[in-house]
Amino acid sequence: MKHRILAAAAVIAGVSAGLCAAARASFIQEDEPAEWRVRVFEEKRESRARVHSLAFGPKGRMLVSGRDDGVKVWDVRKGRGIRFLTGQQGGGWTMALDPTGKLVAASTPAADGMHDVLHIWQIATGTEIRSIGAPKGRFTSVAFDRKGRLLAAGAQDRSLRMWRVGSGSEIHNLAGHEGDVVAMEFSPNGKILATAGTADPVRLWDVKLGREVRVLGQLSRMAKAVAFTPDGKSIVTGGPVNYLRVWDPKTGDEIRSIQGHFRGVLAIALSPDGKYLASGGEDEELRVWNVADWTEAATLTGHRGAVKALAFSRDSKVLASAGDDKRIRLWQVE
User: Fold this and answer.
1) What is the CA radius of gyration of the chain?
2) Which CATH fold topology does 46-333 show?
3) What Cα–Cα distance (Å) separates residue 14 from each residue in 129, 223, 313?
């Protein structure tokens, strides 16, 4: 059944647990039973920053956001920030959380302002355990594999590099993209890395051998977001046009295109239980799709700017969304 839920959320301003409790109960709906409830994380005006990436910790109690000014770690239950991580020049645009929820990797501008540094921090202590410099320009995407043993990052110089997390040793430096590598994700089994660039189609790489194995579509199919379904049998991409595309990673064939957004798609996320696909874009809307038949399940409104970041909790019960309006919204599936 297709829903359009309009939700009015209480604002969680900084550190008040009382406001958090109010937010959990504050919502309105149209004439259908509510499936999606919303909470909003909002800071004092002088502390706000655009959010570019989101990730939940393993138990859903922690949410990490990559922002213009750094990386913020949130206590989801209390609705307040518990740690802020940043480099000398601020920044945290590109961010990834490891599967254990203990490490976060994020890029920040170097002191010379000409390139980025990729930091790996321990979340519990805020201690930096490793830093990696970009050869030229900025890091534009980063991802851990599903076991947390490998870290991959793309950059403005079109490079795609891969390291062992434990030792920091580089194992691959791959070439093939014609533009910035802006999105990436490892397959559930860790054998394939999917990467999206600004000037060419999505590419699939053999992680062990460090070589390209497949290209999805032609130049017109370039993407800004890419994600595997939990079973690894399909890849979903979103890009400059208002379409989502579903691909067969074994053949590289396009299985389906999904239209719903009015402008380009900037972020996608699949629920770990495999039921939902969420997409956000330049039209300021968040759409949720049933993976079983790729029909629309809900249109969630409230953002006042492009939606650039999405993440489901590991139990698939909460969807986080954020972007240019500098607010994080948590949508609860019941």
Assistant:
1) 19
2) Methylamine Dehydrogenase; Chain H (2.130.10)
3) 29, 35, 22
